[in-house]
Input
Amino acid sequence: MGLGSAFYHASGTWIGMLADYSGMFMGSSLMVALNLRRWLGWRFGALLGVFLALTTLFLASTVVLPGAERWVFAFGSPCWLIELRLFFRDRLETTYRCLLWGYFAVGVAALFWWLWKRRRGMKTDRSEQT
Output
């Protein structure tokens, strides 16, 4: 993940952007696949298929819907829905304290990033650029 992001921010190219987003999308796709394993007990071959299909779909959406990458990353992945389903099934055996703190930390970081960009008068989304 870090190398693709470093390449994108150093080069500012479209290929760099794909490298940056591909790391994020692969991480998200991996979490979906692992959650499906916990939920349905699928074998490795099925999980690999889900991982590759989701990663391809996410990257294709980056090309087809420019400017929507963050939204695709945040809401396009069904990982949080599967995790919610697993919570109702396994809540007595599983602790979610670390997961909730992680979501809280990411939310606070995203808020500060957005506020910082706004204060500096920077565009936070390609759709806002003229």
Observations:
- The chain has a mean pLDDT of 79.
- The first helix runs from residue 2 to 11.
- Helices lie at 2-11, 14-40, 44-64, 69-75, 79-90, 97-119.
- The two ends are 30 Å apart (CA to CA).
